[in-house]
Specification:
The structure is a homodimer of 727-residue chains.
Chain A (H helix, E strand, L loop, with lengths): L2 H5 L15 H4 L17 H15 L8 E4 L2 E4 L1 E2 L8 H9 L2 H49 L3 H26 L8 H9 L1 E2 L6 H16 L7 H16 L19 H20 L2 H12 L5 H25 L29 H25 L5 H25 L22 H11 L6 H17 L3 H11 L5 H16 L5 H8 L29 E2 L1 E3 H10 L4 E6 L8 E7 H10 L40 H5 L1 E3 L10 E3 L4 H11 L4 E4 L10 E3 L6 H7 L2 H4 L1 H7 L1 H8 L1
Parallel strand pairs in A: 5-7, 10-11
Antiparallel strand pairs in A: 1-2, 3-4, 6-9, 7-8, 11-12
Helix pairs in contact in A: 5-6, 5-8, 5-9, 5-10, 5-12, 6-8, 6-14, 7-19, 8-9, 9-10, 10-11, 10-12, 11-12, 11-17, 13-15, 13-16, 13-18, 13-19, 15-16, 16-18, 17-18
Protein name (chains A, B): Chloride channel protein
GO cellular component, one term (chains A, B): plant-type vacuole membrane
Pfam families (chains A, B): CBS (PF00571), Voltage_CLC (PF00654)
């Protein structure tokens, strides 16, 4: 093979065993020399550090999990790409966009927000309508039987209907759409942090979610509609943001502006807010929930659009409820959206009421953290049959309890106690709040209804640790601002108390489900490491004009999603980093098979062969696979010019950059790949790539177990409490 | 001079004319060669690009303004440093910090938030108390005279007292504390974006602000308390965050944790929220105002702390008002905090009410943007006498109008019309809202009070363009959630309409005052440039072990605040970038005069001579000056080891990085300096430094006037409308 070919990136022999050893790094290309052997004149310290770098970093690969528990099933996960990809093809597209394009883009953005709002409101309305009709019918039949004295039959009807409904929900989620199980909020939170799983926002998930939600809530289980509605809102937003379906010819050229992860993230954030707004008719609370609980990135422009979305939800819901007032919706409105009964009272409170309120806050914090603890320890077991059994047992127990309660608690002033529960955001109802409230409230001059509100606020604060949004949701539910200071006090106390024990319920679930969630703050031990201490190999790089066979081999043998592109002499004075090319874009190139016979720069501008939307990001979970493309032997020997398709502005850090500051960059800018540059100019122009997985504590502490032995151990194990307080 | 000395960074001869020509770049050090001449074998394209780079970039210096209008005076401005400075001294300090330190830090953080809340509430209370007593006394005297039929005397008293009060406020702000003039919100917004001006948060400013606010509001001028209270809250937060005063021995060792710009930024954000909370007794609205209107960086942890602060404001205000109910506060509570009178009504509205509401929104948008336009064009004139004259004319006119109004508008049902105005956030009262509301409302079935609320919302939305926070403030003021959808609708319409004309009032003022405000979005033309197209020279760099005389010369002849530190052979294999050292840290080093006789690595660890708090960031506006330090001739010939004091993890970009993406990094991470690395390894290890000024449109378009000629011109001139819609 001619030396010229060699320099063009014929990256060594294809490994017959198909391992993921790096041909480029170990033997192939001329510039990727072993950094430990590259120079003899450095001092001992530098050499020692380089050796350690080689041993600790490059020789190991990152073993953190590439799958996560989505709903009840295990899914492969993928990182999202919020970075602006600046390659020649996209740049030409941007230059071609005039004022009209921008106007269209803006108009579409608002139109999509409008649609998300309207559809989320409709979904919330359907869910409410379904629940009230199904549960109402069940209640009417049971009551009539009880009034007729036929308690046995009534219990049987109650039990069987509950059992059937629960089983329907469980079977749907276990066998049809596993991603629809659970509240869905951890999945939405992970998505907005940059972790995608194929099924979380599919149409199937959406339908099963709504039907399952109706069945589960109607079955008298203590589950709320809020979580499912957040997931539903996010689903609607994500489906609208896919840019239509080219399969069913339901697309339009304009929608291609939204075929990127940034715009989809914004839409899904608005969708999550719309879900809460639909669940509680609380538009401001919905915006704040999206901001406080689920989003990882926020801009004040997003505040405005989320507000518009939730305003649409409120308007549409109001119109639909007005429509239903004329008895067109069956039993809807008979049970009604259950509100607290403190609206009409003028509430007064004094300093003497503070001790019981503070007690309530502390109790709420303790109970909320206990709730999180048990959920963390008990709920997650493997196996579909186990889940069915669990659901069956829970529904029978709940039915018995509910049916028996009026007898047991007949001494209480109001036998329909549990019916008054707040439509809880979490799983356990805020019923406990009312019970606790009643117990304590009996010693106070305060209103019982107010105490129920405060009790539920305390529990929500203790479990979910959201202060501002829960506060606003409660205000919007009760329409009473005079108790604002008390609600705030209770929320702050319960959150503080609960934070001393464990993290909030969503963070626990996100961790438990194995999502590689990028925290917003930096762990203390990250300040002790540099990026070269965690970057793992083997690094796979391509030349600017690369042999097709080598690209195919690398794509087949690794799972990497981004590859540095390096220009070597004679195309540059010395080996220089040209940029970063994405796997998805390489696959588009390979599928087109627009190859060049030799490795000289192509006369034709290859980018002319492609339209920008050839490279548009497909919808969630859809992507090309290298195995689906066939190549002839001649094609494998040809070359492809990667320059026009390479992102020429990847974000970079020098290898001596502290891990903490690289984490700040990675998280704040919302990256998928971060290139690591060498400190010395004599080395290869790029020494590694950092991804989200490289910032995971399990990976870092696996590479550097000595960090456990130092004082950081203490800080780390006190982490959940500390980091919640500190950051 | 020995070659060894040369390599140690004796950066050329000191320029006898004291110009700011770069000795390092042009003649001195061995590696800073002219990039245009460094290699002969590159292709023509590369050489042409480099020459352009040299011509367009490095040879010019950034001429954007280094001063801004603060209040009514001109001040030098300085960038804030939100980056984590990781040098050896600070690292040792972090390693020494255990669990106790973290606990103390957390406790202090919350204690400071508590204090900010309490003091802001007290300041708001004092302002209200002052206004109600002064204005009340004036009103009582005038009314009594009018009841006695002595209209002439009454008018004279009214006019003279208003004139005296206005002049008091004007003289105080013009001659005593110019930084206290105006609403203060633009200054707070600029500070939270990273621009500091020495006087904005001083104790003098705080006192003048409160007194001036009382005088101005009492003088019947149409000014609100909200802006001043936001500035007051920010002042209190900033003063508390200075870490005490070492001059008056009012400091404590613990407070040193807060001697950095990050923690101060968080505190000032909470303080701004506390100001709004104190002005309107609207805790949730205060948090949202801080989030939506003034802050440039936000984390959900900050949401919680800001909420705690505003909750404290609400609690303290309530306690103080309770205290005043027993007639201990003079006239306080007689006029009362003026609220809208819609609380008690149960408001119903139907589809037929939509057209007038929409009209109101559109009108509010048009009037709001007109208000911004006139404020932009008319208000800012130079000269102290002009300001005094303006104030005098305005107060006389206002007094005449107010006194005459009840006669002119006597046909209206309520002659005290203007007295009912909402305590406006902006300058013009929401009175117009009520007037417009009455005109339109007469054709509607809606409540007049409701229409007044909607009218003021429309104007605020049109002028300030804040939707969520104005909405929540209005809700908290009126304690009525049923009209939420209407308020939202009006706000969204008026904001959209007004955005089509110009930017919001605070952004206009920030620009007008000359603050180098970093926008949250990227201008389209930034995508067409790389960082090398805007980076300006001359670059000043130091060697790891540098001659004192050279450092002193560079510090005296340039105003740069950060300098790259480069290690050269024999200290490294090749010239490598070691990090970035700050001017402030260099001054601490030079003041200590712990120099070494020659340029070999010092045996003693120089960092041992310093405590971390020697390098703590001093309070706003306080900093060392090189002119204050005297050096002997021998000292100037000695050396200093910069390594332990150099930030070894500065953020970097490669010179080919697109300007748009560098802007994203700079803004999201909150940087002060961004180092530009060369693409080719044959060049000097650093080619420039980007600061906030390099991202200003006037600088970029000054360097690249051809951008005006392209299609981007169109987009740029439509910018105010577009960017507000797009982002």
């Amino acid at each position: 093979m001619a030396p010229r070919d060699q320099s063009c990136g014929d990256g060594g022999e294809v490994d017959p065993e198909g391992g993921i050893e790096a041909p480029l790094l170990s033997s192939g290309s001329s510039f990727f020399q072993d950094p430990a052997h590259e120079d003899g004149d450095g001092d001992e310290e530098a050499r020692r550090r380089r050796r350690r770098f080689l041993l600790a970093g490059r020789s190991q690969s990152n073993t953190t999990s590439q799958v996560a528990l989505v709903g009840v099933g295990v899914c492969p996960i993928e990182s999202l790409d919020y970075e602006l990809i600046e390659n020649e093809v996209f740049k030409q597209d941007w230059r071609a966009r005039g004022r009209g394009h921008i106007l269209r883009y803006v108009a579409l953005k608002w139109a999509l927000c409008f649609l998300v709002g309207v559809l989320s409101a409709a979904a919330g309305f359907v869910a409410n309508l379904g629940v009230e009709n199904v549960a109402g019918a069940k209640f009417v039949v049971t009551s009539n039987l009880m009034l007729a004295g036929r308690y046995g039959t009534a219990f049987a009807v109650f039990l069987v209907s509950n059992f059937a409904l629960t089983m329907l929900a469980t079977v749907l989620t276990v066998y049809v759409a596993p991603a629809a199980a659970g509240s869905g909020i951890p999945e939405v939170k992970a998505y907005l942090n940059g972790v995608d799983a194929p099924d979380i926002f599919s149409l199937k998930t959406l339908v099963v979610k709504i039907v399952g939600c109706i069945a589960a809530v109607s079955s008298s289980l203590h589950v709320g509609k809020a979580g499912p509605l957040v997931h539903t809102g996010a689903c609607i937003a994500s489906i609208l943001g896919q840019g239509g379906s080219s399969k069913y010819h339901l697309t339009c050229k304009w929608l291609r502006y939204f075929k990127n992860d940034r715009d989809r993230r914004d839409l899904v954030t608005c969708g999550a807010g719309a879900g809460i707004a639909a669940a509680f008719r609380a538009p401001v609370g919905g915006v704040l929930f999206a901001l406080e609980a689920v989003s990882s990135w926020w801009r004040s422009a997003l505040l405005w659009r989320a507000f518009f979305t939730t305003a649409m939800v409120a308007v549409v819901l109001r119109a639909l409820i007005d429509f239903c007032k004329s008895d067109k919706c069956g039993l809807f409105g008979k049970g009604g959206l259950i509100m607290f009964d403190v609206t009409s009272d003028y509430i007064t409170y004094h300093l003497v009421d503070l001790p019981p309120v503070i007690t309530l806050g502390v109790l709420g914090g303790v109970l909320g953290s206990l709730h999180n603890f048990f959920l963390d320890k008990l709920t997650f077991r493997k196996g579909q049959k186990y889940k069915l059994l669990l659901a069956a047992v829970v529904t029978i127990c709940t039915s018995c309890c509910l049916f028996g309660l009026p007898w047991i608690a007949s001494c209480k002033p109001c036998p329909s106690d549990t019916e008054e529960a707040c439509p809880s955001i979490g799983r356990s109802g805020a019923t406990y709040g009312r019970l606790v409230g009643m117990l304590i409230g009996s010693q106070s001059t305060l209103d019982h209804g107010l105490f129920a509100v405060l009790g539920s606020a305390a529990l929500l604060g203790g479990s979910m640790r959201m202060t501002v949004s829960v506060c606003v949701v409660i205000l919007e539910l009760t329409n009473n601002l005079l108790m604002l200071p008390l609600v705030m006090l209770v929320l702050l106390i319960s959150k503080t108390v609960a934070d001393a024990f464990n993290a909030n319920i969503y963070d626990l679930l996100v961790k438990l489900k194995g999502f590689p969630y990028l925290e917003g703050h930096v762990e203390p031990y990250m300040r002790q490491l540099s990026v070269s201490d965690v970057v793992t190999g083997p690094l796979q790089a391509f030349n600017g004009i690369e042999k097709v066979g080598h690209i195919v081999h690398v794509l087949r043998t690794t799972g990497h999603n981004g590859f540095p592109v390096v220009d070597e002499p004679p195309f540059s004075d010395s080996p220089v980093l040209f940029g970063l090319v994405l796997r998805a874009h390489l696959l588009v190139l390979l599928r087109k098979k627009d190859f060049i016979p030799n490795c000289s720069a192509s006369a034709l501008d290859a980018s002319k062969q492609f339209l920008p939307h050839d490279f548009a990001k497909p919808g969630s979970g859809k992507h090309d696979r290298i195995e689906e493309i066939e190549f002839s032997a001649e094609e494998l020997e040809m070359f492809v010019d990667l320059h026009p398709f390479t992102n020429t502005s990847p974000y970079t850090v020098v290898e001596t950059m502290s891990l903490a500051k690289a984490h700040v960059l990675f998280r704040e800018v919302g990256l998928r790949h971060l290139l690591v540059l060498p400190k010395s100019s004599k080395r290869a122009p790029v020494v590694g790539i950092l991804t989200r997985h490289d910032f995971m504590p399990e990976h870092i502490l696996g590479l550097h177990p000595f960090l456990f032995k130092t004082r950081w151990k203490k800080v780390r194990f006190g982490k959940s409490a500390f980091t919640n307080l500190v950051f």
